[in-house]
Design goal:
Blueprint: H1 11-31, H2 34-52, E1 60-61, E2 67-68, H3 69-99, H4 102-106, H5 113-143, H6 151-175, H7 179-197, H8 208-214, H9 218-230, H10 237-257
Antiparallel strand pairs: 1-2
């Protein structure tokens, strides 16, 4: 009698299953980091709420074209979540995995190190998306901030901003040998980028020369693009182009210098 045999799974299906397992494992670990979830998801909306409770931020200002300060800070809250993920949390995770040999050990299993990198990008991207939805919803329900009047342009600007932020995280990880270095570099970059994003003062109220300079940075351009889309205009292609160019450059740097061990 012939004994029926079960065909061996294909290499592609094995890799897919392994990648799914890595994603599930990383999702569980990600969910056990309340501090990370707070800073990416909750902190931008908390800052938005605090600013919205200041009476002057809820009053129309002629210098802002009749808009209110709180109207300008919803896009800033969106970018802030990207900055936290890209400059603060993601580099430490990836560098820690490399420093402790986890990426090297993964290379001997069906789940390649690329699976772990992809899982981190997916999870941080999902956390940013939740933060964006929370900030837009709180702005609307609590302070009457209108939903973006140019939703397609707003989504495009967000996609480019997220790409730039996560590419920044990958580049910092690529250039940092240890977790401590990654955290230091990320922190050094974080505060100037908060300024260019308009956290300390909206980009729209900056002097023209300073606004032009800030508009050449990835998150300054992103802030201007998001504000234009929120006001109902299609984001300037120059602002979208600057953000996209920075994303491409940072991705190129990450690919060029990233090491699995």
């Amino acid at each position: 009698m012939s004994v029926p045999t079960t065909p061996a799974p294909s290499p592609g299906s094995v890799r897919s299953s392994a990648s799914a397992a890595v994603l599930r494992s990383e999702a569980r670990l990600f969910g056990r980091e309340p501090a990370v979830l707070f800073w990416i998801i909750a902190f931008p909306s908390l800052l938005l709420t605090i600013l919205g409770l200041v009476p002057s931020f809820r009053e129309a200002d002629e210098a802002l074209g009749g808009r209110r300060g709180i109207d300008l800070y919803v896009p800033v809250a969106v970018i802030l979540s990207v900055l936290v993920a890209g400059a603060q949390t993601m580099p430490g995770v990836l560098t820690g995995y490399r420093e402790h040999g986890i990426l090297r050990r993964l290379s001997t299993t069906p789940a390649s190190p690329k699976s772990l990198l992809a899982a981190q990008i997916v999870l941080h991207g999902a956390a940013i998306l939740l933060s964006v939805l929370l900030a837009v919803t709180i702005g609307r329900l609590a302070f009457g901030v209108a939903f973006p009047e140019q939703p397609a342009g707003y989504v495009l600007a967000i996609v480019l901003t997220v790409l730039a932020g996560l590419a920044l995280g990958a580049a910092v990880s690529a250039l940092s040998r240890t977790t401590k270095i990654a955290q230091t570099v990320g922190t050094i970059a974080f505060f100037p980028m908060m300024f260019t994003a308009g956290v300390y003062a909206p980009v729209q109220v900056m002097p023209e020369l300073l606004k032009d300079i800030v508009g050449l940075t990835p998150f300054g351009a992103a802030s201007l693009a998001l504000d234009q889309a929120a006001a109902g205009d299609w984001p300037s292609w120059s602002h979208l182009g600057v953000t996209g160019l920075w994303a491409a450059l940072l991705i190129g740097a990450a690919v060029r210098w990233f090491r699995w061990e």
